[in-house]
Amino acid sequence: MTRHADPDTRRQQIAEALVSTLAERGLGRTTLADVAAAAQVSVGLVQRYFRSKDELLVFGIEHIYRRATERARSVPLAVPVRGIVTRLMETFLPLDEERERELRVWLNFLQASLTNPEMAAIHGAATADLMNGIVEALTAARRTGELPSGLDPEREAAALIAFTDGLCLHHATTGTGYGTADIRAALGAYIARLFGERAPT
């Protein structure tokens, strides 16, 4: 990396180093020096952009949320809606190494957000954005007849998010008990029940 890289490039470099370090060491054992070493820059350079570990973590989780949003927006919008919902939720599952690392950082962030109002607000805003997207999709499915007219999109969206979060948590804590094939299959079964097997994915 060039010595005179622009600030955005430097922050991106540091964010990637943070994700890798947190995923491996956890928040409690990660220091600014660890992140600097992973980014191959000086501690002083890291501190030029981030004054504390909390500030660095906030930037890191925002970086992860941006990547998750980009993946979600890349899902093709094509009927049946059930397929959209399935592919959308799969973008949040740890189905590859990158998302595996992101999940571990996210779990560290959630713990920190319990006592940090700024982090809690970031999590709340990201969850609200996801909720709105799923509600919109389920409302469209109800309109096209893929879901019954009496279904409550907001209630079902909240349940689907909670279920997906649960899959991520069990995957992170039990490993082989909830492997990638298992969590993908579990999500598929949940959505199949939600849609009453009305349409193929």
UniProtKB/TrEMBL annotation:
InterPro entries: BetI_C (IPR039538), Homeodomain-like_sf (IPR009057), HTH-type_TetR-like_transc_reg (IPR050109), HTH_TetR (IPR001647), Tet_transcr_reg_TetR-rel_C_sf (IPR036271). Residues 8-68 form the HTH tetR-type domain. The keyword Repressor applies. Keywords: DNA-binding, Repressor, Transcription, Transcription regulation. Transmembrane segments: none annotated. It holds the Pfam family TetR_C_6. Residues 31-50 bind DNA. It comes from the Bacteria. This is TetR/AcrR family transcriptional regulator. It comes from Actinomadura yumaensis.
